[in-house]
Write a structure and sequence with these properties.
alpha+beta, 20% strand, single chain, four-stranded antiparallel beta sheet, 173 residues
């Protein structure tokens, strides 16, 4: 394959033109080729790999902070659930009362609900964006303590601001 490339007429023409050049121009052309090769190596391989590594390190730091935050508040949440006990409230709420109670307690605890929708007689789905993790925990504890509303499903995502989360919850009585 290399022999075939050497026999190519375009390559032969370029080689003849190179040999005609003065020695100084050949050295400049070689230096330019070396610089061009280094630029290609950097921009095609080193740069993207370095950017990927930096992004991965930032993701690791954010995920580590979120894990630490969750672990720090795990004890608080379990302590709150032990003190409230299962017999906090035994009355059953209608779907309308459930929505009203959940939204009122959210406002009292400083949690702004983005969206909510009833899901059957005794369930409600709730979306929360950019909420303080601590306020979310206190709100969920208040729901359990005052209305015996429990979290069936929860999905938490860390936001850009420290201590802020977005979540999707399914609450039930």
């Amino acid at each position: 394959m290399l022999e075939g490339l050497k026999q190519n007429s375009i390559i032969l023409d370029l080689q003849k033109q190179y040999e005609i050049l003065p020695l100084r121009d050949r050295h400049i052309l070689k230096a330019f080729g070396g610089i061009l090769l280094l630029c290609i190596i950097y921009f095609a391989m080193w740069g993207p790999a370095n950017d990927y590594m930096e992004n991965a390190q930032q993701d690791l730091e954010q995920n580590t902070k979120l894990l630490l935050l969750v672990k720090q508040n795990e004890a608080l949440l379990s302590a709150l659930s032990r003190t409230t006990g299962p017999s906090s409230s035994t009355k059953t709420l209608t779907s309308q009362q459930l929505v009203s109670s959940v939204t009122n307690l959210a406002k009292k605890n400083g949690v702004m609900l983005k969206r909510f929708e009833p899901s059957g007689d005794k369930k409600i789905k709730v979306w929360v964006d950019n909420a303080s993790f601590d306020k979310m925990i206190k709100w969920l504890a208040a729901l359990k303590k005052s209305l015996n509303i429990v979290v069936e499903q929860i999905s938490l995502e860390k936001d850009d601001a420290a201590g802020q989360v977005s979540s999707r919850l399914t609450l039930s009585t």
